[in-house]
Amino acid sequence: MSSVIKKFRITKIKNSKPLISLNKISLSFKKNHLILDNLSLNISKGQVIGLLGPNGAGKSSLMNIITGAIKPNFGNIIINGEDITQYPIYIRTKKFRISLCPQIGGFFADLSTEDNLKAVGEILIKDTKSRNLKIEELISKFELDAVRKVEAKFLSGGLKRRLTISMSLLGDPEILLMDEPLAALDPQTIQMLQNIIIKLQSEYNLTIFITDHQARDLLVVCDKVFILANSKIVAEGTPNEVMKNENATKHYFGSNFKFK
Ligand SMILES: Nc1ncnc2c1ncn2[C@@H]1O[C@H](COP(=O)(O)OP(=O)(O)O)[C@@H](O)[C@H]1O
Ligand SMILES: [Mg+2]
After folding, report:
1. Whose CA is nearest to atom 4 of ligand 1?
2. Mean pLDDT confidence for 101-109
3. Which of 25, 29, 227 to mutate to test the pocket of ligand 1 (most atoms within 8 A of CB)?
4. Is 194 in the pocket of ligand 1 (CB under 6 A)?
5. Ligand 1 midpoint to CA 58 (Å)
6. Residues with Cβ–ion distance below 5 A, ligand 2
């Protein structure tokens, strides 16, 4: 599978216009404890950008700085050249088409697959006919038909992820933030989700920002990777570049890391 992915990567890597820029972002929840320290990064349109870092490094916080759920203490968030730092969540969602697929939850446990899609669809898509069409498109694309009447709490880990990803696409986002979508799953499910992520990039023309605390599964889907450790970006580049980067080895991979 990795050879298919690599061939695909080469055609996509050309476009380098920044869609999202984080400029000099600092964040602390408690005084004198910086989670993010003067951090800057650019995300190009149409790319799959990975954010790797140990547990507690600040990856989810950084995603929520982009959605607007967390306000940074300093710094700006620019999208398409427009400073959105002061914009509330709903404007970021509506105008800039940002969608988050959260690390935990993201669905109503007591609702069926179909009712989860309906519940969020009713908020995002006014017209009943287009809403139902979109829901059916997602059920088919994510192969959820067999479980459409099953309550989300009874779904396997992989199906739960497929449901949350499908829900995050209801509003036709342009930017999809995926917080550890590959964590705590079996190898086959991880491979299936990796294929889904790559298809999302090509079929929906999405810009995808995706985190993981574990490198091996994430690196195969990314065009570019940032390594977040000790409150800073310690390395950035293509997966091959960061794997050779001394700072990345020192602060994140460790000297025994080998990419299969
Ligand atoms: N709302 C909050 N209040 C206080 N501390 C928080 C809050 N959210 C996250 N933290 C702390 O910030 C650090 C980074 O958290 P997080 O962004 O969830 O890291 P990651 O996603 O990389 O595991 C952790 O030490 C966490 O305990
Ligand atoms: Mg997290």
Report:
1. 29
2. 92
3. 29
4. no
5. 6
6. 59-60, 103
- Ligand at shortest distance from the CA of 104: 2
What mean pLDDT value characterizes the chain? 90
**What is the pTM (predicted TM-score) of this model?**
0.90
Q: Which of 248, 203, 245 is nearest to 229 (CA)?
A: 248
Cα gap 51→49, rounded to integer Å:
7
Distance separating alpha carbons of residues 224 and 219, to the nearest angstrom: 9
Q: 3-state class of 142 per DSSP?
A: coil
Output DSSP code: residue 151: B
At the topology level of CATH, where does 2-97+173-253 sit? Rossmann fold (3.40.50)
Nearest CA to ligand 1 atom 2: 29
State the Cα–Cα distance between residues 178 and 98, nearest whole angstrom: 11
How many whole angstroms separate alpha carbon 168 and alpha carbon 163? 9
Assess contact for 201 and 7: CB atoms under 8 A. Answer: no
Q: Where in the chain are the domains?
A: 2-97+173-253
Tokens of 207: 């810009």
